[in-house]
Write a structure and sequence with these properties.
By secondary structure, this protein is mainly beta. It is built from one helix and seven strands.
Length: 87
């Protein structure tokens, strides 16, 4: 499995956070530590047979489960529909 990064824009800078790929591959959900979560985190989605790239934001309304340390988000894409470059 290739790597997938979440991004966060801060002015002229972009911060990148690597997703927990073993969990994503096994459970088809994004597991994200609560202490890293902040508004504005997104990943790039490029639907198959399309040239349009969209930003998919992780927001609190997309949380499907939560425990003491992690938020769990639905991953509604196929892996090949997510841009994985780290620029």
């Amino acid at each position: 499995m290739r790597t997938i990064y979440l991004r966060k824009e801060n002015g002229n800078n972009i911060r990148k956070v690597l997703l927990d790929m073993p969990y994503l591959v096994t459970h088809k959900k994004i597991r994200f530590p609560k202490y890293y979560f902040e508004d504005g985190l997104y990943l790039f989605n490029k639907p198959k047979n399309s040239n349009n790239i969209k930003k998919y934001y992780l927001t609190k309304d997309k949380i499907v489960k939560e425990d003491d340390d992690f938020y769990y988000f639905k991953f509604p894409f196929k892996a090949e529909e997510v841009e994985d470059y780290a620029d």
